Amino acid sequence: MSEYILQAKNLTKIYGLHSENEFEALHGIDFTVTSGEFICIMGPSGSGKSTFINNISTIDMPTSGWVRIHDIDIRTMSSHEIGKFRYQNLGFVFQDFNLLDTHTLFENIAMPLSLAHIDRTQIIQRVQAMAKQLNIEQLLNKYPYQCSGGQRQRAAIARALINQPQIIIADEPTGNLDSENSHELLMLLKKLNEDYQTTIIMVSHDPFIASYSSRLVYIKDGYIEQMIKRESLTQDEYFQKIVELNSAESRRHFQ
Ligand code: ADP
């Protein structure tokens, strides 16, 4: 059994393979994650952050190299197995929420449990308990378009967490939220990380949000260019280091 919850080796992603638009977005990245880490991925726009996070989390398949989650090579799974693996192990939080507009919040949140064929009584109990925790229990019969951005985001989080995943993948999760809701979401992620050792891999462009992580991974031009571990730094010291890294990188970009 590996000491890592997630491992990627020599990860390469080429879009438009063998076409005139062929573009290599990731160039042979090696990456490991230990259970309970809270990782923030930063980097300039177009550097490959979303491609990276999608390719390490079964959303997309790398062109070459391999990814193992819980020691299982995701390339060896059929699409049916990947679907099952996802709702058993991974929770996704996206910037645009990705809720289904034709389904109520209840149905949206229940989806991973329905897919796992959990029985109806248990589904109702678990959805209600999760909705209560996120303060949206009064909204379960509403449709996403009847809810505010913050409420929709909380429903998306409830859906991501309902199956108690060991890994949460979050791509700019606070991107569409005001500062109060961003703060709440961050506190929730931090709590899950601290109380349940849930592993979090999050993309953010905001150094303050990044300062809640335990490790910063800076991606540039399809490579991991730098990593900073928080270790014994205070959050403020860590934040300063992240700000310095970002401003040094943007200065280099404009020189
Ligand atoms: P980031 O998340 O850092 O903004 P992305 O991972 O979205 O970057 O994109 C990395 C690079 O890959 C960019 O140059 C982008 O234009 C390109 N890219 C992303 N998705 C596709 C795609 N589906 N087809 C072709 N090129 C893509």
Report on the structure:
This protein is α/β, with parallel strands linked by helices. Helices cover 38% and strands 25% of the residues. The chain is built from eight helices and ten strands. The strands form two sheets. The chain has a six-stranded mixed beta sheet with strand order 6-7-8-3-9-10, with helices on both faces. Strand 9 (215-220) and strand 10 form a beta hairpin. Helix 3 packs across helix 4 and helix 3 (105-115) runs parallel beside helix 5 (149-161). It is globular. The protein starts with a strand and ends with a helix. Adenosine-5'-diphosphate (ADP) is lined by residues 15-16, 23, 25, 43, 45-51. Adenosine-5'-diphosphate is lined by residues 15-16, 23, 25, 43, 45-51. Pfam families: ABC_tran. One of its GO terms (molecular function) is ATP binding. Keywords: ATP-binding, Nucleotide-binding, Transport. It comes from Longibaculum muris.
Please specify the SSE layout and strand pairing.
Elements: E1 4-15, E2 23-34, E3 38-42, H1 49-55, E4 64-69, E5 72-73, H2 79-89, E6 90-94, H3 105-115, H4 120-133, H5 149-161, E7 167-171, H6 179-196, E8 199-203, H7 207-210, E9 215-220, E10 223-229, H8 235-254
Parallel strand pairs: 3-8, 3-9, 6-7, 7-8
Antiparallel strand pairs: 1-2, 1-4, 4-5, 9-10
Structural class: alpha/beta
Estimate what percentage of residues fall within beta strands: 25-35%
Cofactors, ions and other ligands in the entry: adenosine-5'-diphosphate
**How much helix, percentage-wise, in residues?**
25-40%
Please give the domain count.
Answer: 1
Q: Looking at CATH, which topology would you report?
A: Rossmann fold
- Number of E strands: 10
CATH homologous superfamily title? P-loop containing nucleotide triphosphate hydrolases
Helix-strand pattern: EEEHEEHEHHHEHEHEEH
- Please state the average pLDDT score: 93
Could you describe the largest sheet, including whether it forms a barrel? 6 strands, mixed
Which CATH architecture is right?
A: 3-Layer(aba) Sandwich
Instruction: Tally the helices.
Output: 8
Distance between the termini: 47 Å
Radius of gyration: 19 Å
Across the major sheet, the strand order is 6-7-8-3-9-10
What low-confidence regions span 5 or more consecutive residues with pLDDT below 50? none
- Principal-axes shape call: globular
CATH class category name: Alpha Beta
